Amino acid sequence: MSIWKERIGIIGTGNVAWHLANLFNRSGIPVSGILVRSEKKAKAKGLREVFGGVPLRDNLQDILGDSDIVIIAVNDNHIAEVAANCTQYSGLLCHTSGSVSLSEISAYNPSAGIFYPFQTLTRGIQVDPENIPFCIEATEVDYAEKLTALGRQIGSPVHLINSDQRLILHVSAVLACNFTNHLLVLAKELMDSKQMDFRLLLPLLKETIHKVSFMDPLSAQTGPAKRRDTATIIKHLDVLKEFPGISLLYAQLSESIGEQENQ
Question: N or C end of the chain, less CB within 10 A?
């Protein structure tokens, strides 16, 4: 692996920032610092321990002055606000969001890019870089090539995806990941109501994911709605009367599956 010399600055202290700092450290990529709101808050949150030996800084200009690439890893609602304070930055300014367009930062700095990790990330839980694809976009070909090289340096797959495609990808991820996890929360609630172990569902979940790795999801669909088993659906809805929110979702999803089958 070639030696990476360009310094990376990170703005933000959440899940994505932790994973980026961790991946860069493990790959020998120099991190000039992580911007925190204040030293006092950093100490209170134990961020020095969380981020190990990565320098914490509470002055944006210090990060901008010492970094060849600055990555904004903050809540989507604050990305443009941060970018507005980086108009004089001469390096490559990036963000990590799946739903914020490139134009929202290139409006403030023409040297702009996207370095979006397409994975569910939780601070403290290591993920193999091979399982963190990065979606890349930039205002110039040279910038895209630089971000592609950065992704490959940490051992991750890299995909060139524009803002319109990335937004659809992000919506798809919410459906496939966030909504699925919410359904698991509800399934556990039902299991808990009858003192059953949620882990009974794990083999079923693993097989479901395994099948869609080699089958079209539509072909892999099973269950009463797929079979048009109205009697079972009615029985399930009767059981769910004491869980009105879950009952509504069950009915809506069953209807959606039925409509898909009729197409």
Answer: C
